[in-house]
Amino acid sequence: MKVMKFGGTSVGKPQRMQEVAVLINHDSENKIVVLSALSGTTNALIEISTAMAYGNKSGARQLIDQLEQHYRQFSKELLTSKQALGDAEKIIQEHFEFLQIILKISFSEALNKDILAQGELLSTKLFCVYLEQQGLDYVLLPALDFMTVDANDEPQIGAIKVKLAQLIKKHGDKKIFVTQGYICRNARGEVDNLKRGGSDYSASLIAAAVNASVCEIWTDIDGMHNNDPRVVNKTFPIEQLSFEEAAELAYFGAKILHPASIWPAQYFNVPVKLLNTLQPSAKGTLITEQAGSVGVKAVAAKDGITAIKIKSSRMLLAYGFLRKIFEVFEKYKTSIDMVTTSEVGVSVTIDNDLQLAAIIKELEAFGTVEIDTNQTIVSIVGNEITETKEVLQKLFAAIATIPVRMVSYGGSRHNVSLLIARNNKEETLQLLNEGLFGL
Ligand code: ASP
Ligand code: MG
Fold it and tell me: Is the residue at 286 inside a domain?
């Protein structure tokens, strides 16, 4: 059994969705196909939800109508048989009627989650109508019947495993199972989701639960690249990464894979493959527990970082100082990414500044607090790079002209991270591409 996950752009155009049907029929291995919503849909649903939250019913209605038009057009281009067109029409009607009814109910967070779930429900159902039209044998497994999270929003892998096994057993003769990414049920039994980009996470949880031979993540790029292809003009796909390397890259900015999707695959040792629907025969990136060759593999950047420096002479020779500081972040549920310390100060970075004002207020009890906003973390990732001395030499020679605010080295053997101002990012990535990869 393997898992094949297709993202929003891979199903976002009728022709692309048809190509997905070809791809899943390419080999005879049993598979679970996980789909995202059509590209743009989740954003549109968020807009609808926001309009409702602000009581802007006419605005919400207009957005719903627009989206409905989009789906009508989509299904007309996707399908040809009368039967299939009729089935699709019913599905579209059902889901958009639901949204129209929701308009009349007073808005709540639970309702918001219901609205957001419509994207994946629609994409999978329309895809199944197409499979039906093409005469392919499949079963639709509703994610809401097996994908559950606990009260802390953590997926219940044990329960998922049991429920999925039961559902699959019920359809023992089938080879193709289709399901929704992203959506789940929470501890209260309500419809919920695994956060933006969460379909990757769904796919790896499913792959872990069924002990899949591989978890294939299909997008529109040929794997993880050595540098950000949106910023730097010459990049190349990386053939092989370890789970640790992939986790660092995904967390620190490589947009191709949701960072949370690494742990289930790693823990249950399921290889992950990043593949390209536009170029299905390209090698892509294989992620396994194997570390591969020593050296720099890739550079990734994460924007929207805030640096916080706490300076205090009381820190000198004192113990327990760091704990007190970290406790403030814990209290405000704000996770810290980078940390550097000197004897009289400590700098940390956060990527979520929602609670910044309250955090600063509490930190001021310990010393002077300085804030730098609009920072970017640039991570250099590769197997044992901190053991190889040329890496640091090359790294700092390459970016000699760039002011560096923080350096994190030695936290793991696979990562060196720099904090720079956001407006130096493009130049930094370009310089690193030249200095570390000779491109
Ligand atoms: N449709 C959801 C989103 O856009 C989940 C996903 O695509 O992974 O965030
Ligand atoms: Mg995605």
Answer: no
Q: Which of 220, 248, 278 is the last residue of a domain?
A: 220
Distance between CA 156 and CA 150 in Å, rounded?
6
3-state secondary structure of 372: strand
Partnered with residue 191 across adjacent β-strands are 185
**Single pTM value for the model:** 0.92
Cα of 229 from ligand 1 centre, angstroms = 21
Q: Is residue 235 part of a domain?
A: no
Which residues sit opposite 216 in a β-bridge? 4, 273
Report the alpha-carbon distance of residue 49 to residue 280 in Å, rounded.
36
Q: What is the mean pLDDT of residues 268-284?
A: 96
* Domain end call among 156, 191, 220: 220
Residues across the chain:
439
Among residues 97, 79, 98, 100, the alpha carbon closest in space to that of 88 is found at 79
Q: What is the CATH number of the domain that holds 365?
A: 3.30.2130.10
What is the amino acid identity at position 23?
L
- Number of CB atoms found within 10 A of residue 69's CB: 11
Quick check: is 389 in a domain? Answer: yes
User: What does the block give as tokens for 41?
Assistant: 């849909």
| Band of pLDDT at residue 255, cut at 50, 70 and 90 | confident
Pair type for strands 345-350 and 336-342: antiparallel
Give the Å distances, CA to CA, from 396 to 28, 347, 403: 50, 21, 11
Domain tally for the chain?
Answer: 2
- Domain extent, residue 306, equals 297-437
Proximal ligand: closest to the CA of 182? 1
Looking at per-residue confidence, does 411 or 374 come out higher? 374
Q: Which of 34, 38, 196 to probe ligand 1 with, by most ligand atoms within 8 A of CB?
A: 196
Q: How remote is the CA of residue 249 from the centroid of ligand 2, in Å?
A: 15
d(CA 121, CA 37): 8
> Residue 225 domain-assigned?
no
Q: Which atom of ligand 1 is nearest to the CA of 36?
A: 7
State the DSSP string of 39-78: TTHHHHHHHHHHHHHTT-HHHHHHHHHHHHHHHHHHHHHH
Inter-residue contact 285 to 224 (CB < 8 Å): yes
Q: How many CA atoms lie less than 13 Å away from 207 in the CB half-sphere?
A: 32
Half-sphere exposure of residue 228: CA atoms within 13 angstroms, side-chain side: 23
Cα 249–255–259 angle (5° rounding)? 55
Radius of gyration of the chain measured on its C-alpha atoms: 24
**Tokens standing for residue 347:** 């700098």
The ligand that comes nearest to the alpha carbon of residue 220 is 2
Q: Give residue-wise pLDDT tens across range 178-219.
A: 999 999 999 999 999 999 999 999 999 999 999 999 999 999
C-alpha 186/C-alpha 221 separation (Å) is 33
